[in-house]
Amino acid sequence: MPTRETFSKLVMALVAAVILCLVVVAIPASAQSNVGNYAFLVGSGFLCDSGDSANCPAVVRSANGDSYEVSGAGMFDTKSKLVTATGTFTRRSPNGDSVETGIWLASELVSFESYGIALGARMQAQSAFGPPQFGSRWMPMRTASMPEGGLAIFHIRLLPMRGPSRSAALQVNCALGRVPEERQTEGIRLTLGGSGGEFDEEVSGRTMFVLTRLAASPAKEPPAAGDEPAPTPARVQQ
Question: First-to-last CA distance in the chain?
Fold first, then answer.
């Protein structure tokens, strides 16, 4: 049976292959869309290159002391809510023992709120995103890509190596850009389905969103005589 380290490397290699295909193939195909396309990292990739063990993986804790360690990466479309993302997780008891290890898969983007472009992080990302390769710097960066802060919520599925799978909501907060006062702590939160518990104390871990494509909005035509403007949808409050 493979060790946890080998298992994690195999999963992240798979993630790398998926993201490379999406960046090279899917993004150019969506050039005419009027949406934002993002890549994101959670306690993985070049975020781990500083050598600070607190950066990777991202760790979140519940009120009773249980914790989850999460690493992963993916891409999402803010209009269609489609997401392709995966990674690894480990659940630990309050005394640090590993209780469960597996992979997670994202099924839907629930919401994304941008904090704006982070120009300072762009230089860091440009130096880290090299030619496509597997390893800690595997994700390529196009010249038009821009690091960005924000808060994303995903529906995910936790698939442990042993035992049944379960649904969960993964919240990813990147504290770059114009960050609201109540969201200054970077990291993740996890809510398990079926009264499985809430992990809402961000312990450590870095995250980042990268805007890979933002198409220009088409010019609006004036309404025809007698037409009434469509009502503006109410913004969902988080």
Answer: 42
